[in-house]
Amino acid sequence: MGRIEKIIVATGNQDKMREIREILAGFDIPILSMKEADLVTEVEETGETFEENALIKARAVWQKSGNLVISDDSGLEIDALNKEPGIHSSRYLGEKTSYHIKNQILVDRLEGVPKEQRTARFVCAAAIIFPDGSEKTVRGVMEGQIGYGEAGSNGFGYDPIFILPKYGQTTAELPPEIKNQESHRGQALRAVRDEIEAYRNRQDS
């Protein structure tokens, strides 16, 4: 009872699935997207924090599957824009609006803002619901700055305008292994990995 047979990730985003598989590589457990698990669940994210939204998605999928479910809610907070787009990052200007347009509008909104005031961060809250129904949330944060235009093709979403000062490059310019090491999602998923390993150890003891 409560054994982990598979991990279901509450997302249909293939870019996100690729990152998750890279970071959780080495687990002897299948890692499936909702589509791969043959689960169709439309969830309205009504939470007021990244953690609340991650739990809402995870609970909806767990109730249909009973397996271990991981869900994350992540977004970009820009200090000069009152932490916009924040929890609305994926829905900012409409879900069907391309990120190329979203990125350009955010850069335009920061016109005239000096470099030292262009501080921003990527936040990722991950929720885990284990087969026994217990829940856990973890968080990762990556601090940086907003650039003056898009650069790089390795990332997705807001990556092309988000500069990591220690590298002087956007997260879309960094090689995947460095991005995963530094990223908000990488931090959160390494914490997820630790939580899963602790759960398995408890099951085996």
Your description of this structure?
There is one protein chain. The chain is an alpha+beta fold and 205 residues long. It has one domain (7-204): Alpha-Beta Complex (Maf protein). Helix content is 32%, strand content 23%. It is built from five helices and eight strands, in the order E-H-E-H-E-E-H-E-E-E-E-H-H. Strands 1, 2, 3, 4, 5, 6, 7 and 8 form an eight-stranded mixed sheet that branches. Helix 4 (176-182) crosses helix 5 (184-204). It is globular and about 55 Å long. The model has no long low-confidence stretch (mean pLDDT 92).
How is the topology of this model organized?
Blueprint: E1 7-9, H1 14-23, E2 31-33, H2 50-65, E3 68-78, E4 84-85, H3 99-109, E5 119-129, E6 135-146, E7 162-164, E8 169-170, H4 176-182, H5 184-204
Parallel strand pairs: 1-2, 1-3
Antiparallel strand pairs: 3-4, 3-5, 5-6, 6-7, 7-8
Helix pairs in contact: 4-5
